[in-house]
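Postdoc handover notes: sequence design on the structure in folder B. Input tokens:
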């Protein structure tokens, strides 16, 4: 497959740091299909914060090694995604509750959010891979609103720890590729809500 035949997919990464290893593994698997070019687009927190799950520098370096792309780090770098129409699809993975709420309100104060806004103007798929402790709490209404918006699709998700964190839900990231394929045909993969992890 030539570069021209591959999909160009943006990967908007926000600060659900506990899922970064899963996102790296899934990105590596997607790259191994040799069907797409993946461009990382980092929120400010994702690109800057060191946490107990690892350093920001190590994560950025790993993503560059996996994708072969330096990535997008600023709002001015993300804005041209709109007028250029350069992406076939954009995946927000992981997508935090903070990002969900801001996306729902039209706030674009990070590169990942600006990329989402810019991309949606082209009426192409925006795929959300949710990862938030308040999916069934404060963000429940935002998930519902986004599910009813044109060109927005969700990676199927479920409760990750219903005993200790009953409002928490996380996407089944292994279904990102299937969700992407369906979204490119204008379809939401079903069922969206799946069994607990």
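Designed sequence:
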């Amino acid at each position: 497959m030539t570069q021209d035949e591959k999909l160009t997919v943006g990967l908007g990464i926000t600060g659900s740091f506990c899922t970064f290893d899963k996102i790296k593994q899934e990105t590596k698997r997607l790259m191994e299909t040799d069907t797409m070019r993946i461009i990382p687009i980092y929120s400010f927190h994702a690109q800057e914060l060191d946490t107990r799950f690892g350093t920001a520098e190590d994560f950025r370096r790993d993503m560059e090694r996996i994708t072969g792309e330096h990535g997008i780090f600023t709002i001015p770098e993300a804005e041209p995604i709109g007028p250029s129409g350069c992406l076939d699809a954009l995946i927000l993975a992981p997508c935090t509750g903070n990002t969900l709420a801001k996306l729902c309100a039209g706030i674009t104060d990070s590169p990942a959010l600006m990329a989402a806004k810019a991309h949606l103007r082209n009426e192409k798929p925006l795929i959300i891979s949710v990862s938030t402790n308040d999916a069934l709490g404060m963000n429940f209404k935002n998930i519902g609103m986004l599910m009813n918006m044109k060109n927005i699709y969700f990676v199927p998700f479920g409760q990750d720890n219903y005993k200790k964190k009953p409002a928490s839900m996380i996407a089944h990231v292994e279904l990102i590729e299937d969700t992407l394929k369906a979204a490119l045909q204008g379809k939401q993969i079903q069922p969206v809500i799946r069994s607990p992890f």
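Context for whoever picks this up: Strands lie at 7-13, 36-42, 89-95, 126-132, 152-154, 157-159, 169-171. Don't rerun without checking with the PI first.
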